[in-house]
Amino acid sequence: MDRLTIIKVGGKVVEDSQSLDALLNQFTRISGQKILVHGGGRTATEIAGKLGIPTEMVDGRRITGESMLDVVTMVYGGLVNKKIVAQLQARGCNALGLTGADLNLISAKKRPVKDIDYGFVGDINDVNSRELRIIINENVVPVIAPLTHDCKGRLLNTNADTIAAELASELAAYFNVYLFYCFENKGVLRNPDDENSIIFELDAPMFQQYKQEGIIHSGMIPKLDNGFRAKRNGVKEVLITNPENVATGKGTRII
Amino acid sequence: MDRLTIIKVGGKVVEDSQSLDALLNQFTRISGQKILVHGGGRTATEIAGKLGIPTEMVDGRRITGESMLDVVTMVYGGLVNKKIVAQLQARGCNALGLTGADLNLISAKKRPVKDIDYGFVGDINDVNSRELRIIINENVVPVIAPLTHDCKGRLLNTNADTIAAELASELAAYFNVYLFYCFENKGVLRNPDDENSIIFELDAPMFQQYKQEGIIHSGMIPKLDNGFRAKRNGVKEVLITNPENVATGKGTRII
Asked: Which of A69, A109, B38, B133 has the most crowded Cβ, counting Cβ within 10 A?
């Protein structure tokens, strides 16, 4: 099977033009088939603010009302996605920007209201990779925005880490998939004040223990949950690292 | 050669949810391969206004400064395009939203400044249909936003009528292309106050004469220039009509 690298980058990296440049230079160097999954939350918050739409977050997740859905559709699917596509094309990388609605790639259902009404947030039902695999085999590089659809004409806001994990899991049947979660640190840190205190290998019992000890907490927990699920689903390697180490393979490896 | 229908619809049609519904119902019924090219100017003007960015038009063309480029990227490439894609998916039509940067589909150069500085407006250099044809042959339906790129990382705002004509011309070598320009009237009218005064057939000398007599004027002139160019480039049929007549083939036929 061919190697396929899936890189997920957070908003912080893609929304600053300097760090985006550095990321795209690294990304272009990766040999073989590849996919970029991106966020864009900071720009969404900024544009929403300018439009007079308040941003409300619960546990790091955006409450997505009707007008916020329009904002994330514009910002994730349009502004952030198409800028990345144009800049990859400038580097000779034949990028194709996608949401989960395009090619019916990722269908989802609106999250049921329990304690909190997240609004138009989607929990993934299914990944359809048929057309995606055809274009990947034509050396096209998909660039994926964190939006899905409900098959009834509605776009839904969906977490980019989850999209990357589900896509990696689906594609593991066809490729040797390497999944990289890129964020600001070199890996999962034992001590948040020491950026060299990287946990190089992480297995499920260690993850439980670090959670209990409070060493791994807040936003890192769902990210790692996604990573462990992808690993269980046959993804060859899951690495948490920063954009600079995408090429070296240094960081926290899920085992 | 297979039949390929290219429908270009203006902003007025796609920005109103009722007329968009009607259009997509008609569009879904077209048999064979198809492409939808859309505008979105009214929404761009509205969002720009809310963001405090003034809209300036010269001869119906938008002056596109840096911040207006962000707006059209968001609105054309994101909001309008992805809503259409999601609603086509709901109708069982496997849509794929594209700009000219995606798949390196349409490259352009920034319009040189003469009397007027249009800003980041692109004049088309080249259409690359290789990957587009592969996906069309997989029964995917491209939905194309009026944006191109300069191959140097910059998106450019490009007229949707021109995009439709250039795409139709390029694809005429591979398909029997039928190009429909849809707008609010049933065709080009002899008398603007009588919507039944349709000019059913229009050839180049008639076009010259109607222009001289002032019967055809303003925005209709560049639209028809695009239509005549497409026809000269081997497009099988070019029709100016409204969305309701996409299926019947009634309207103004360029001969």
From this structure: B38
pLDDT of residue B27: 94
CB contact under 8 A, B90 and A134: no
Residue B253: its H or E element: strand B252-254
Tally of domains in chain A: 1
Task: Say yes or no to pLDDT of A13 above 90.
Answer: no
Cβ A127 vs Cβ A73: under 8 Å? no
Nearest to A82 among B85, B99, B151 (CB): B99
Share of residues in chain B with pLDDT > 70 (%):
100
Q: Do B101 and A94 touch (CB under 8 A)?
A: no
pLDDT digits (tens, 9 = 90+) for B166-192: 999 999 999 999 999 998 889 999 998
Under 8 Å CB-to-CB from B60, ≥6 apart: which residues? B218, B219, B222
**Domain range holding A127?**
3-254
Q: Which residues of B touch A125 (CB under 8 A)?
A: none
Amino acid at A233: N
Residues of B in contact with A129 (CB under 8 A): none
Interface probe with B: pick from A20, A72, A103, most Cβ of B within 10 Å: A103
Q: Which of B96, B129, B140 to substitute to test the interface with A, most A CBs within 10 Å?
A: B96
Task: Give residue A187's pLDDT.
Answer: 92
Size of interface A-B (CB pairs under 8 A): 135
Amino acid making up residue A92 = G
Contact A97 B94 (CB under 8 A): no
Partners of residue A135 in chain B, C-beta under 8 Å: 131, 134-135
Please name the residue that has the structure tokens 């909001």. B79
Angle at B163 between CA A85 and CA B234, to 5 degrees: 130
Question: Is residue B154 within 8 Å of B144, Cβ to Cβ?
Answer: no
CATH number assigned to the domain comprising residue B219: 3.40.1160.10
Partner-chain contact B74 A79, CB within 8 Å: yes
Average pLDDT, chain B: 95
Say whether pLDDT at B159 is over 80: yes
Cα separation of B21 and B144, whole Å?
A: 18
Q: CA quadruple A168, A172, A174, A176: dihedral positive or negative?
A: positive
Taking each helix axis as running N to C, give the angle between helix B66-74 and helix B41-50, from 0 to 180 degrees, rounded to the nearest 10. Answer: 120
Residues A30, A33: Cα–Cα separation, whole Å: 8
**Amino acid in position B30:** I
pLDDT tens figures, B222-236: 899 999 999 999 999
